[in-house]
Amino acid sequence: SLELIDFKNALEQFQNLVEKMIIQKTKESSGLYTKDDDEIGYDKFYTATRTFFGPAVKDHNIQAFFRKIMNNPDERPDWLEIFGCFTGESGGMPSESKESMVFLVSEKRQIARSVVRRKDVIKGLVKVPLLHFTVTASQKGVLTVFNKQRKSFFNYSFYFHQDTAWITGCDFLPNLQYVVAVTENSILLWDYRSKESKHDGFVIKPMKNCLRCVSAVTVADNLAEDTILMGDDKGYVYLLTMTSDDFLMKQSKAKKESRFKFLDSKSFNILKRKLHDDWVGKVKYISALKRFGSCSTDKINSFVLEDIRRLEDNLPVKEFSVPKGVNDFTYCGKAKVIVTGG
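^ thats the sequence. predicted structure below, dont judge the formating
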C-alpha cells in the first residue's frame, strides 16, 4: 500500500524518469537520438511507475500520462494526473446508509446518466445559483449543463472534438449566458440555449501559452458584456472582455459543416500580466472584495490579491509568499477570511 512507500523519494524518482523521457523525446524530434539499452518505452515506464507507487495508480492513468508526454513533451503534465479518479465499471449506486468518514452529509444523489466518455474525467464544476443549474467540463471536451427541475436533473451536452488539447477549466458568463472553457491552446464559448445541432459554439485561438484555469468576473456595471480571467503555465494572468457583437463581427468564414465558428485571438484586446514564476493554478474574482485572486506553486509569488485594474498597468500588486506555493484558495464572506491550500 501507499503507506509503506517513502512517497517523497518515489515522487523524486518518478519525476527524474519523466525528465529522461522528455529529453529522449526532444532528441528524437530533432533527429539526434540514438537508441540504446537506456531507451524508455511504455513497458519500462509502466514497470517503473508500478515500482514507485504500487497499486495506488491505475493502468489507464499510466497509459494516459505516457501518451500525454509522447504527444506533447513541451507541455509537461502534472504528476497529480497519475492518480486520476474514475468511476468503476460496475456503475452501482452507493449505499444510502454508508456515511462518509470525513464529511457527514444529509443526502447524496448520483446522476446515473453518464456525461463523460470512458477514460474521461471532470476537470471543472461550477454552480450557477441564480439559474439553478450546474456546469461541468470533462477533460476530453464534454461540456454539460445540469438543470434541476421538478426534483429531476435534465442535462444538455456539447462535445468539443480536439486533437491533443485537453480542457483545463470552465465557468459561466452570466450576462452573455455562455459557458466558457479553456483548453491548452484555445478558449471555448458555448451557447447552451441553442437548439441547433451546428454553429452553437465559438473557439478563440491560437493562444501562445497553455491555459490552465478560467473565471468569470461578476460585476453589475455593464449587462451587455462579460469579462474573463485566465491563467497559463508561464505565470501570466489574462483579462478578456467580450460583448455579443464580438460573436457577430469577428468570426472567420468557417465551413458550413463545421460545428464551431472560429474567432482569431489577434482580433481581441487580451490584456496579460506576469504575476507568478510558475503555473497559475487558479484565478477567481471575489465580488465581495472587488478583487481577483490568483495562486501558483511559485514559492515567492504564491498568492496575489489585487484590483483587476492592476492587469492593465505595471503598478505593484499585493502578493504573499507561502512555502511550496499555493494550489487552491477560497473566500468565506461570513468569517471574512481567505483560506489557501498548498
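The chain has two domains: 1-83, 122-341.
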